[in-house]
Every structure is written in structure tokens, then in C-alpha cells.
Amino acid sequence: MHLLDPAPFGRILPAMVTPMKADGAVDFEAAQQLARQLVADGADGLVVNGTTGESPTTHMEEKVELVQAVKEVVDVPVISGAGSNDTAHTVRMVEQTQEAGADAVLVNTAIAVAADPVAMAGAFRMAVEAGRTAFEAQLAPERAGASATSPLNPFLDSIKELEQ
Fold it and tell me: What was the pLDDT predicted at 102?
């Protein structure tokens, strides 16, 4: 039992490496073994598809399949990286990894818009909205009380005004 208040996804969330086969393909079976071991060793949740997990070198289908493979074998939150230098690609990754079962996503904004705060915030807003839509589309009756929110909602709403 922790002395601190519960955290939404737990307190120990290791960033998983993505095991690869000799030919460079993702080794999903090894990823499942690693995920099970990390949870057995005390992980409260897992982070997949981050830069520790070779996300810059894996394809969208592999990222989605990795989320599915890990979710099949563990009963802890799985958080997936979903950021890209391309806003449209980020939106697709958010949608697809959440549809695959990710409990949350990590999103970085496109580097191409980093010099323009309004464009950067707009890119982030699009990713948040995609995540909210994907989440709400999958609400099962037992999760109907849950909500897809961001502490940045007031900020994101103010960006809408700036974009107009």
C-alpha cells in the first residue's frame, strides 16, 4: 500500500523497450514476456511505443499490434507513445492506439510548428480531440462514468479563439 494518494495510472510505469528479431521485425512474443515480467516485478502500468521503445523505427501497424499484444497479457494500464512530427499522423496514431486498447497516449507536438505557439497548440488540440473521440466511441457500459479530459482543456479552448 502506498502512503501517497493513488495515481491515475499507478506509480511505477517503466518505458518498455521493443524487442526485435534478428531481421529487424518486432518480436511480439518477447514483448509479451517482457510485459508480464515487468508487471510481476511490480510495475503498476507500462509505457510502450516511446523513444525507449524504438518508436522512430517502427511502423504504425507495428505500434498498434504492440499495444494489442501487451494488453492481451497484462491487467495494468498500457500507455502508448503517439507523437510524430506530422500532426495528421499523430492524430491517426492517437486514434489507432486507443482503438487497440491503449489506456492513455503520450503526445508530442510536431516540431515543424514549434516556432509558432498557436500552430503548436492547434496541433496538440487536434491530438487531444482525436483521443477524446476514440475514447468516447469505445465507452463500454462499465466505463460509462469515465471521461476523456485534459487538464489543458481551458488552454485548448482559448487556442480555438486564436485560430479563428
Answer: 92
